[in-house]
Amino acid sequence: MKSVFYSRFFILLPWVLIVIIMIDVDTKRSTSVGHTAQSYLSRLGNGQRHERPALPGKNRTAALPVIYAITPTYNRAVQKAELTRLCNTFRQVPQFHWIVVEDANSKSELVARFLARCGVPYTHLNVFTPRRFKRIGMPRATEQRNTALGWLRQRRFLKDSGIVFFADDDNTYSLELFEEMRSTRRVAVWPVGLVGGRRYERPLVEKGKVVGWYTGWRADRPFAIDMAGFAVNLQVILSNPRAVFKRRGAKPGMQESDFLKQITKVEDLEPKANNCTKVLVWHTRTEKVNLGNEPKLHQDSIHIEV
Amino acid sequence: MKSVFYSRFFILLPWVLIVIIMIDVDTKRSTSVGHTAQSYLSRLGNGQRHERPALPGKNRTAALPVIYAITPTYNRAVQKAELTRLCNTFRQVPQFHWIVVEDANSKSELVARFLARCGVPYTHLNVFTPRRFKRIGMPRATEQRNTALGWLRQRRFLKDSGIVFFADDDNTYSLELFEEMRSTRRVAVWPVGLVGGRRYERPLVEKGKVVGWYTGWRADRPFAIDMAGFAVNLQVILSNPRAVFKRRGAKPGMQESDFLKQITKVEDLEPKANNCTKVLVWHTRTEKVNLGNEPKLHQDSIHIEV
Questions:
Q1: Hey, which residues 242-301 in chain B have their CB within 8 Å of chain A?
Q2: Which residues lie below 8 Å from residue A223, measured CB to CB, with a gap of 6+?
């Protein structure tokens, strides 16, 4: 009798342990901030840098479309600081691919080193803006954004699922923004904070459709929206191969409209962020740095990257 | 014979499974970027907010001293954007406690809501700066920093291990900075980027000791260092209960020196960041926002927090 009891006990004990362990592991993975944290873990587990999408079935994030964030950048005192803030945010976004395009004739060592260490899957490109386009009143970063679009059209295909977003290097991004844009079917829009001389600009939404724009500046623009205020499904980028940002006839503040009218209509826009009532991205601007005390003589004995 | 085989098989099988599961779980936890990712997971797993240190033995981060980051903040257009960037960075730092002190007569709903959602263990305090101290040429955030120090002296004890750091809300912080300051025994120092009219300021180090300052501004300061350039062990804060930031006789730019000379000497400073040769924090400043187009009439139909 005793021996039967013991044998049953020892047969059941490990199964009970297995169940307990599985419940414990599962609880730890699913508590907390949803897929952001999970995928942070899973991405780190899969290796810091990869272009390939994660193995299917490996984790829940594998099914998510990749967010391609296009960031034009240029050499200046605050460049590394700005990229550091972006990296600190982007490295928490699952299925993310950062396309950084330098305004330069060649890739800088600073940006190359930075990206290699940042821990976000990335592509590093460069294209120099001709001097004649570098005047006040001219739209900026046109060449850089188009170069990134060109890269996507060459390297991604109709079978790839993705979302394209233009992420300038001085804006402020909440993590929630990326959750919102992830479900973009064609073109999604949302409010942007601290832009156009107002606390925010936003698309006005009625019955789930964009019907106008709350803006303090040129309300006559077909799409009165900032570059940080929309995302485009990769399929739309690929199936409209001629849609680019234009130099000819383009005015500052009209780049977004010029681009969007090539790929969508106002009535087809998909409002995100609770029908465009939440500000999840801010058009912050960093002050130009005063380097007035930089020494001409008596320089530091070593070179330090800033 | 067959039955003996089967019974042994079924007794052994679950134990083998248990071993496999344990190895799998352990591997997933320990791969990747060392303690940052692990603790990010473990902290999320343990619940988003907690004041208590993690259970000992639960993970390797439990042994780390807590970093107490003191952030004075005040109501302005870019406040939530700035706090968002900080939160996105701080939530990746293990064993971190954010002490946010508002310059206000009462805690604002915006900051309270923000902190509750941010996912970083925090304490929310407030103290109003008297109007007579709010003039140009007067040091800023003195009352807020002292209130945070007071909180630490009331709520933390000699048995608690911690590091105290003054993290202004517009600076830019690399994650590496927090790894560096974690080992502060008494007072640690490192370079700060984009400050004092230079690309960077830094302590000059010889044979592991600070022997002077590379600075473009008032090199005669006893500690020619920015608020973002040092950390103090909690024990030093607790065992010098009268060390505070001073109003009386204090000049802007002298706050750091006035404070540090109460608790340490230059020769006792611990140089971090590879003997003060790496910039891991930047004194960035965000532009004041132009709200010139904010409407007096025709306001938005809903209220949106920015």
A1: 277-279, 282, 284-287, 289-295, 300
A2: A213, A230, A256, A257, A260, A261, A266
